[in-house]
Design goal:
Layout (H helix, E strand, L loop, with lengths): L3 H18 L5 H16 L12 H6 L16 H15 L7 H12 L10 E3 L9 H22 L3 E6 L1 H4 L3 H17 L20 E3 L2 E8 L17 E7 L2 H4 L17 H11 L38
Parallel strand pairs: 1-2
Antiparallel strand pairs: 2-5, 3-4, 4-5
Helix pairs in contact: 1-2, 6-8
Length: about 325
Amino acid sequence: MLTSQWRTAVRILCGIAFLYYAVSINLGSIITFIAFIGSIFALSKSKEYPVQISPTLEKRNPLKRKSGNLTISDVPDVLIQKIQSDVYKHITYDPELAESVENFQSIQQNTECIFAKRAKIWGSANWNVNLTLEGNVLKSVPMLMTFIQLCPTLGLDGFVFELPTSKYGKTVEHFGQSVRKLLTILSDNDPSHGDSMKEPNIGKTGWVFKFYNHTFFITTFGPFYSENHSRYGFESENCFVLLQPELSFAHHDLPPDTPETKWETPETIRDKIRVAYRDAGRGYHIRDTVVYPMAHDIVKPLTDKDDVITWWELKIN
């Protein structure tokens, strides 16, 4: 940057040149006049303006900045987006090719549910024996969030978690404890700050499991159910928890629930599903009302004569 002495010298030279050519109006006099005027403004000492923090960055980081220190909020948005993309790629996997989906195939392809065979299922990350249940569930949270966002666009039907029977499903009660823990982990890590598993009315009418601002219908399967049970695992060695977003039922135009069934001349899809289960020897109890606690059907007892599995009250080991 020019010092004040140099700026003065340049101005004087421009002024002398202007006076020399000023005796007659010609190209030289015009050029030197422009140069003289320009030297006055262009070579003026630059004003120092305070650095302005963009409103976007200021909003991202409301914490008071320390003078001279940079924070993550000073990083350009385009770089932040690249970092987020790279991190996302690192923590995700192919949810359609996960082992949980592959192992769930025996149930999906053999169950009497009309929609099951062509249902679009995503699954939890491959099980890591070195991690706890919580560690394994948390690995799948980003993909579950992705599933919810893409569900309407891709017409997705369910997200399945696979749990090793030896550790989380030795009995139906043991499995009930594991289901409670799994749903509690999801609830505690809900990005929308939902508290589904902290509500006192889980076992009552009106409760529904929510995650990421979406409600889910939950069904479970395990090897402890016999072949004449609607939750029969078709010889799968592990247990499964299937989360079906309620909005997915709209994709199939499933009629409203009803306690009535036309067993001899089934008309609705719901009638046909119930008849198919009955004919396969896996008929399930149909209540005489559609108003009942949804939690009662998440982990079903071994027989219809057994008491409800109050999995939400079972102590978590």
